[in-house]
């Protein structure tokens, strides 16, 4: 009898967060009394179908390991690479080579800086992406008017034309794919020099179309320092955050 596929979370958390503008990487910024990283990991664990969450840290990152010490549902892997895609690939290869996951297990890759994921969106993603051959990802339909811009000779940013938005979505995470398929897709992209900004783009280069599952506003990614305050308000944390 074939083994039933299991679900695992994977959280790349090895970045320095250069755009965040702080000595503290954004994943370790406080959101209320808890770090952004802890909230993002615990958001994944809200669904009991996840066997475990693997947090991928930079080698020598003792802070991240200390956050989850004693938590049997979280394992830290000190194998982060130079870029996010390298980090995800290093972690997948480690898990597959050490038989910690099987080829057909589902991997839910979730940004370390998306602490606002709610359990309902996670549940729907797992339900729907499990039934789709290519897996899927949370995403939000674009509602703003989009402009194609350029820089004038004076240095000012100017609008050239409006970009149709009817088929445009803003990708979120988790993004959920089979372990071996994602590993092969990222490996092929890196070999060819393809720039990857998310995991779904690697799958798409294989001619496979992942399912788009409706995300939600609170699941925004923290990139700049001001984003921390926005997420705190969205999560009704009274803006109690520090860096």
Describe the 3D structure.
There is one protein chain. The chain is α/β, with parallel strands linked by helices and 243 residues long. The protein has a single domain, classed as Spore Coat Polysaccharide Biosynthesis Protein SpsA, Chain A (Alpha-Beta Complex), CATH 3.90.550. The chain has 7 helices and 12 strands. The protein has a 7-stranded mixed beta sheet with strand order 5-4-1-6-10-7-11, sandwiched between helices. It has a 3-stranded antiparallel beta sheet with strand order 3-2-12. α2 links the parallel β4 and β5. It is globular, with a radius of gyration of 18 Å. The chain starts with 6 loop residues before the first strand and ends with a strand. The relative contact order is 0.19.
Give keywords.
243 residues, globular, seven-stranded mixed β-sheet, alpha/beta, Spore Coat Polysaccharide Biosynthesis Protein SpsA, Chain A
């Amino acid at each position: 009898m074939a083994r039933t596929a299991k679900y695992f979370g994977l959280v790349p958390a090895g970045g320095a967060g250069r755009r965040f503008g702080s000595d503290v990487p954004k994943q370790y910024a406080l959101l209320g009394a808890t770090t952004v990283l802890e909230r993002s990991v615990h958001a994944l664990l809200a669904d009991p179908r996840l066997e475990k969450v693997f947090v991928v840290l930079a080698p020598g990152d003792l802070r991240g390991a200390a956050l989850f010490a004693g938590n049997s549902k979280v394992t830290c892997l000190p194998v982060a690479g130079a870029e996010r895609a390298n980090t995800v690939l290093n972690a997948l290869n480690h898990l597959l080579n050490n038989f910690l996951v099987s080829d057909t297990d589902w991997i839910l890759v979730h940004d370390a800086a998306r602490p606002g994921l709610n359990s309902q969106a996670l549940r729907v993603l797992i339900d729907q992406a499990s039934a789709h051959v290519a897996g899927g990802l949370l995403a939000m339909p674009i509602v703003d008017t989009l402009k194609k811009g350029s820089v004038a000779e004076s240095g000012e940013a100017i609008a050239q034309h409006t970009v149709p938005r009817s088929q445009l979505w803003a990708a979120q995470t988790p993004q959920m794919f089979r372990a071996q398929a994602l590993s092969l897709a990222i490996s092929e992209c890196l070999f060819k020099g393809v720039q990857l900004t998310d995991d779904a783009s690697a799958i798409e280069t294989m001619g496979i179309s992942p399912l788009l599952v409706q995300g939600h506003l609170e699941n925004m990614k923290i990139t700049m320092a001001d984003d921390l305050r926005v997420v705190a308000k969205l999560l009704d944390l009274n803006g109690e955050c520090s860096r």
